[in-house]
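pasting for ref
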Amino acid sequence: MTTSPLAPLLTAFTALPEVSRLLSRAAELTEVDVVAPAGTRPLLVSSIPTDGTVLLVASTAREADDLVAALGSILPPEQVATFPSWETLPHERLSPRSDTVGRRLAVLRRLAHPDPSDPAHGPIRVLVASVRAVLQPMVAGLAELQPVSLRVGEERPLEEVVEALAAAAYVRVDMVERRGEFAVRGGLLDVFPPTEEHPLRVDFFGDEVEEVRWFTVADQRTIAPKDGPAVPEHGLWAPPCREVLLTASVRARAAELATQLPGVADMLGKVAEGIPVEGMESLAPALVDGMETLLDVLPTGSRVVVSDPERVRSRAHDLVATSEEFLDASWSNAAAGNAVPVDLESVLGTASYRTIAQTREHALDLGLPWWTLSPFAAGPDALEDAVEHEGVTFRLDAESVTPYRGDTDAAAADLRRWTGEGARVLITAEGAGLLDRVGELLTDHEVPHRALASLDPGVVETTTACLREGFVLRGGDAALVVLTENDLLGANARGGSTKDQRRMPSRRRKQVDPLQLKKGDFVVHEQHGVGTFVEMLQRTVQGATREYLVIEYAASKRGQPGDRLFVPTDQLDQVTRYVGGEAPTVNKMGGSDWQKTKSRARRYVKQIAAELIRLYSARMATPGHAFAPDTPWQRELEDAFAHVETPDQLSTIDEVKADMEKTVPMDRLVCGDVGYGKTEIAVRAAFKAVQDGKQVAVLVPTTLLVQQHLATFSERYAGFPVTVRALSRFQTDKQATETVEGLADGSVDVVIGTHRLLAPSIRFKDLGLVIIDEEQRFGVEHKEQLKAMRTAVDVLAMSATPIPRTLEMAVTGIREMSTLATPPEERHPVLTYVGAYDDKQVAAAVRRELMREGQVFFVHNNVGTIDRTAARIRELVPEARVETAHGKMGEHRLEQVVVDFWERRFDVLVCTTIVETGLDISNANTLIIDRADKLGLSQLHQLRGRVGRGRERAYAYFMYPGDKPLTETAHDRLATIAGNTDLGAGMRVAMKDLEIRGAGNLLGGEQSGHIAGVGFDLYVRMVGEAVADFKGEGDQAPTEVKIELPVDAHLPHEYVPGERLRLEAYKKLAAVTDEAALAEVLVELQDRYGDPPQPVLNLVEVARLRILLRTAGLTEVAAQGSSIRFGPVDLKDSQRLRLQRMYPRATVKEATRTITVPRPTTARVGGRPLRDLEVLSWASDLVRSVLLDDIAAGQQTGTDATASRDSSRMR
């Protein structure tokens, strides 16, 4: 069992006379109101004696998470658990997320059947739950559901495990990507249990479990031990993913109910057939035998403790009211033709949530003591006169600490006073970097301090822990004082944090993105042009099985069916998916139109490449500043980062630093979806530049972003000697003049500003790095001004949705590009609703957000009517505090509104699309747009990116007037935005934008036709090749190589199931260009699908032969009757002699530039022709010895061949 960092604090706390007085009476008191400051609550709860579990009820999920973090620092973390609530309301047609359900069931299992031998599944000492989780009834008997568990060495038939997973509501797929999915391939079972961070791969040998290992979703590869533990100690432990399992009785009841509830008959029908359906949990009360609450499953000897009872009570009231209101809104929505909500009141006659009074009564009936922890109370302290089973008040003589808000002198004075009085003083911080800084400050102010040992009086002790608030507790001889980083720095809890992931994710390899082709999709073949995909086929020719991709082209004769091209899967690198105009014209096979289109595009591409190269060579020729390696301060700054970096963030940071340390000026574009941590990369790069005495200019598109970045940079650089200033129209003239002077004389290190920074009057003393945020927002003239300073300075550009224009520079390889594709952990896709505008729906959405203390963006893009809209919302939701913001307001008024919203002074911001870029408010998790049909696709995506930055589930409502018809384009846009809700959909949306608009604005007008003609992927490849050509790195496009030999080379269905996975594997094999890449693909196949059978090994050898043929300049090796043809070849005299000496019956045809060699056999007379691996190695030996002049290989071949012939003679 792990010990907790704050164990000495808990000992000192419980030893205080006041506390021990309360704890000694704890067993006999049923109802106690404890009055104590918030900072003492985690310690009080940890010290309450109990035989069962202490259930701590918090008002919100966020508060529950903070309490869990604090309790995990005081008690061993495995003894503290959280019981999450559904993030959906009980009548929505949405199922709670499988990871929520998995965590809930894992906790219930531990409460009912703890496993003392395994700490991770052992008894729970403190269970924290939000009031929502406590009030919501759940299906009875969930704690009895058996998780599917497997350990190494256990024997269990794979079929049985698969059935158990299916019964536990896991979905069978071909490739595991989300929680609650599993896949089977031969003897390999992949499962993603909802409670795990990574999915697990179970390797069966017969019926025995041979190995269990973690793998990553991104590349489907096993996690290497250096990136983290590859093998979980507990094996596979997979709790069910749904709270309603489709047993026979549930299905029978669903069939009966279908007649009583016609509105949800569609759902009930599916449930009756045993098909899990989205939202079926809402039907649970009517389908199962009984419901219970969390209180019913607590073990005997447990007790309930309510934190902040007043807030819990009002939250419980809101919950019931909002639930009913949403039900009303859904019914009125249903009247307009949308789906009917799940309303069981007619069947059951009860509401979906209990009230807090009912819950309290129920707890006391079950014999569970009910304690409350409140900061104030009506009655005096009456513990001494308490009679058993009577409500009693107990006051703790403690007070909260007055926050110092960065005033170190005042803090030091207080600390000296407390230590002088003999108090025990403890200071906690969350990050080690910050703790070191606190230590330095204490040393500077001559306050004696040390790391936490036994918490002795008269000395300040420090440690890392996740406490939110401190306190001063008087009692006995000496006081007990705890200060947290929030008390010292006064960082008010503005944004919700995402500090709940402590383990580093592993680094990514290549991302797996299977080529998903449906029948009728347009594809581009490099030699034959645009066609439509038909199917994948297996064909057996001369006993060798191969797989082909069938593409249909336009008919060569009028009135005839289209021509079909069979592309062998080893040539898949020639085929890409078409992204371009709406519907391209399908080319004729072998016609001249494709060649024309291609050569025209190539000509234009050359011009672009030449222009880009001029820029590039100027940059390459300019010596820049090579920055020094990281300093200790740099590492300290990085340690103080509160979140866990995503793997992409880590690799991008490394790339940026490596670029800065080179003499060539950096020009890197960082693409990452909204909120993927680009700012932190900028913070670290800027700090590195300042360490070398250089100045940094951060260029942002809006004044709001200046404020935000200023706050972020200042907060991250707090305590380091770095001067950060802003320059935008929000500064007074005096401030602006000071900043400009500071830049000229070098006293300002980092300046954050709008395009005002580009004004000719701004002079830098020694500019070393320019950071451009939201690069897509800057126009051409700004880019020109930047180009002037760009050649000599390092440039780091950042963009969220690279609109097609920005992609171009990066895809050509002129700029280095890093992509952040991993969402920060604990981020969830935004639930997107597209529908007609409805007042009830808006009111319900606003109330739902207020219920969880969140905020709402309401986008109304018309300044003339914005105040009327705000008044309407005030009318609909009187308790909401509403403000407006738009670009025509006075600057200071606008800034004030945004800052107030940021600091949570009001709830609903009615604004124009001014919030589209870069406004980072993690507490705003609902977005409502009333005229979404008027906005462009990247605008819709950017706006949706403003929400979903915290831990809670975010909602986006895209509405349009119900009485007006939608245009075709608006319909397409809304359909795209509704379809791409996953995190990181930015790139997909950008590509789709290209399709909807045609690729007109990628590089200005004249290129658009060429992209529509050849498709985006091929166009990008052509630009890349043209640039490489100019650079003199002239890698030509890999030539098409045809290998037609009697080789049984394919991926058997039982080895790689599912068409899209086979396509992906074939594409990877077709794209290899050297031995190292081939080895990597083979390792990946082995890891993901098990040991490759012979046809797969043959396929790898075919790929190896293709690499060799490309090296030798051949494009074809084909069996032709009784001989094998190689071409095209131009033999030197020495090579011709060698050919005739080693292969006497070979003939050279000068006219067609081919060699034909008799087909090799096992023996000269009566031997059978060589096949599979033998014929491949024979062909590669011939190429090596004759065409690549590798005579040693040839002699080896000669002797081998002679030996094989001799042996066949003896036989």
